[in-house]
Fold these 3 entries.
Entry 1:
Amino acid sequence: MHTAAKAALPHAAAILATPEGRRRATQHITVRHDHIPVELLAHQLLGVATCQAAARLDDYATRIGWELDAAAIACPVRIVWGMRDRLLPWPSAAARYRSDWLPHADWVELDGVGHCPQLDVPLEAAQLIRGL
């Protein structure tokens, strides 16, 4: 995604000017994109394209791996997972979190929502964060 964002950045205005371009810019992270302001999409594209740590993070994750020490977490945990997540597909990607790492968490699965619930359903995501 980082490489694609870097290539797209010089063309961001043209890409985000059309509904088709906005759909392509959000296809991996959202299901519902029509309500997302163009300015926010441009800001996200800029952030992804200019992230200086992306290559190091990717290298670390693939070379070293990552484990979560659930015993070290002393606060309540709520996991909100979009059931149409294309980056971490439900339920296969959630299995290790749910059974191995965070079995004590409060799990909320959202139908028709992608990787970024805060973008797909911002009000519902905010209410879930607040515990409403």
Entry 2:
Amino acid sequence: MALSSLLVCADESTAQMLRRILEGLGITVEHCQSGSEAQLQLAKTRFDSLVIDGENESEATELLRKARSSSLNQPTLAMAIVGKENNVRYMFALGVNFVLYKPVSEERAWSSFRAARSLMQRERRRSTRVSITADAALDYANVENVPATLVDLSEHGTAVESQRKLPPDCRIYFKFALPGHTSLIRLSGEVVWEDSSGRVGMRFVNVPTSSRRVLSNWLKSVPAAVGAAPQVPRPAESIVKTTAPVSGVEKSWQDSGMDRLRASLGNRRGQSRHACRLGADVYRRGIPVPHRCSLSDISSGGCYVEMPTPFPAGTRVEIIVRTQDMKLRTQGVVQSRHPGFGMGVQLMLKTAGDHDQVQSLIRLLEQSGEEEVGPASDPWTR
């Protein structure tokens, strides 16, 4: 299912450029020229991102309030396009996650939206997920009744743990009973991601009406039943704003939204990661065939490799990055994979020299103040 964005911009030339970039990243776009028109869309449609031109600040802030108070779009990633006249601090307080400053260059817009898309892709949630422990039986291909355990659940998907590795490219049928219910829920789904621990994220593909009704009613009753704490927006003065000079994008995360997203699925890491856009050759260990890819972030502990057909979790890889000033050759192990998007790799830095090389690349990124530090003539560094 494609990611979607609501673009609110009255300037036609800017809107055309942003729309071209979003669609180039595989994001469908709904364009509105006014805030009143956008409010109607937010009331009836759920979007993965909301992009607002701050030219009319009162209209933009009102739209942000509407989005954050909406049951459909409260968790939606929000980006504001602002100028010097805008009160950026106030926009962050209203729930903006990214800020893109005017004048907007096409190169910077590509970089910013690519970073935003990575966040949307790594932990896309079309509804709140709740923790659960429930036995399930899986059927796929010629295999039947594979035991598994549901570990979280929503109306649109689930995460499961299975003793068997699940195939990433076939329909999986499973059945389970919800706590407090005796009737079985039967539905089908497809694998969206998997990690090295054996946990698999699945998106529901076909849910019978009766099963969907039981599932929906159960999810609505869960907070009262298990004592889940309600989400309470933080006051404006307690919001943490982090400026990332490497990407040129200011970000703000709130406990009720992006903070959870950063803390999950590949973001539970001890080192600070630096956003980047570096061309790389990635090899499976022992196979001398390079895969031309891009690194979208890196730290002394790991990196994220963007590629349409990522390797399975546990695969040992060798990564070669070339810039104008250095060549980095390092090894790692795939920790998580997201088909169609990329994979998280834990770096295996065995010597002091290995650590020094990675730190030199990170310092180069910090000093340049840019995401791209490779030679301009090399298309794989763009």
Entry 3:
Amino acid sequence: MNQIYGLAPALEALRARRRKIHKILIASGAHQSRLNELVETARRAGVAVEKRDRRELDELTRHANHQGVVALVAPPDQKNTYVETEAILDSMGDPPLVVLLDGVEDPHNLGAILRTCECAGVDGVFIPEHRAAGLSETVAKTSAGAVEYVRVARVTNLVPLIGELKDRGLWVVGVEGGTGNPYSDFDLKVPLAVVLGSEGKGVRRLVREKCDAVVSIPMRGKINSLNVSVAAGIVLFEIVRQRLKR
């Protein structure tokens, strides 16, 4: 039996109904007003809610920050967890906006990026099959339930995907430090694919060479780089700002 822990992730899993939830465990003594919506949503979905000693939830989640809520769910079906590449490409918005993650390995970063992508209305996220974080319980928790809504596809190689995105009329824009091209100066209202690199190495050379443009976030302090999830938030909401202004 797998787990989804945390109030927001469990609530969004109930709402999305992408995975079968067997029961919800709530820590005895947890603040009831915070849990009312969760309990009511579970009742409407026909999912049992049981109170358990908090120490039992600690052991069950290996002392993760479960917030007094653990959902016991069926193991993920890969067909329901990830989507096919074509499913994203054939149903993008107008204008399209997708995100390519070139080797993001920290599941906390991946979860934070997926949360930002959901809030920014991203059509889909593409991640490599190898040497990159995949969808997991940690990602689900960090995403605050966004993993239930953001469409994620795994691909063998990002380079052919970039070619297909260009064939569909998207501009492919990498985000890297030190390019001298501020992200806010770029026209982000066009059909767009944003490429973000790994925590240590950034965007790989072969991927970067396939980008139509590479932009940077100007740095003013002594540290010359941002966490990739923070960079994703800055760039994606500049896209939102420009498109709303249009």
